Amino acid sequence: INPDLAAVQLPEGPGAVIVEPGGTTTVGEAGQTDTYTIALRARPSADVVVQLVTKPAQLSAHPLGDPTATSIRFTPDDWNVPRTVVVRAVDDSVEQSLHHSGIRHVATSADPAYDGVGMPQVLVNIVDDDFAAVMVLPTDLETDVTEGGATDTYSLVLERAPTADVTVALVPSGGQVTAVSAATGAMSLVFTSANWKDRKSTRLNSSHT
């Protein structure tokens, strides 16, 4: 198995539980960061050190509050306390549009059950700041609304700094949903040279009752 793509994991027993807020991890070369949490799945008999392994030309990852660290230590006393990992993109000059990289979690321990055990990996979306485009970011991997009921949101963000204001019109097709800015209620989003890095949330409603 290619270790950059997969790791053998047992459904029960030693391993790790990873939670990505919103279901995805997305960072930007212009400085946008993201986080996820990691904890062990079962109590170890000795300390477990989890290395955060990235491709240095694309990503960096470190525990929250310690930007120079590249690993997390769990003990038999705090094995189930989630630790926050901060992810950053490396700013390069290559036009790549949206691309992906990953973070592997490699465990070492005196506990043989945790030494080299398979752990989940995190696929990271990287927004390129050298390519002019608008990227759509679902809130939780999918966007669903209910007639007369639940609404949903997604976000838009520019991939490169504009030289003038950019207006993105929200024009649903098919007449089944309506889309407006979650912040202002307008049917368009305006990005400027000052806020182009900020994700702008769009709210979807069903137009049927």
Please describe what this structure looks like.
It is a single chain. With 209 residues, the protein is mainly β. Helix content is 0%, strand content 41%. It has strands at residues 16-19, 25-28, 34-40, 48-53, 59-63, 71-74, 83-89, 99-109, 122-127, 134-138, 152-158, 166-169, 177-181, 188-191, 200-206. It has a five-stranded mixed beta sheet with strand order 2-9-8-4-6, with no helix packed on it. A four-stranded antiparallel beta sheet has the order 1-3-7-5, with no helix packed on it. The model has no long low-confidence stretch (mean pLDDT 87).
Low-confidence stretches: none
Give the beta-strand count.
Answer: 15
Write down the Rg: 20 Å
Spatially, the strands of the biggest sheet line up as 2-9-8-4-6
Main beta sheet strand tally, sense and closure: 5 strands, mixed
Structural class: mainly beta
Helical stretch count?
0
Average of the residue pLDDT scores? 87
The H/E string reads EEEEEEEEEEEEEEE
Helix content: under 10%
Globular, elongated, flat, extended or rod-shaped: what is the shape? globular
**Strand residue percentage:** 35-45%
- Looking at the chains present, what oligomeric state does this protein adopt? single chain
Task: Calculate the terminal CA-CA distance, rounded to whole Å.
Answer: 50 Å
Key structural traits:
mainly beta, 15 strands, 41% strand, globular, 209 residues, 0% helix, four-stranded antiparallel beta sheet
Helix and strand topology:
Elements: E1 16-19, E2 25-28, E3 34-40, E4 48-53, E5 59-63, E6 71-74, E7 83-89, E8 99-109, E9 122-127, E10 134-138, E11 152-158, E12 166-169, E13 177-181, E14 188-191, E15 200-206
Parallel strand pairs: 2-9
Antiparallel strand pairs: 1-3, 3-7, 4-6, 4-8, 5-7, 8-9, 10-11, 11-15, 12-14, 13-15
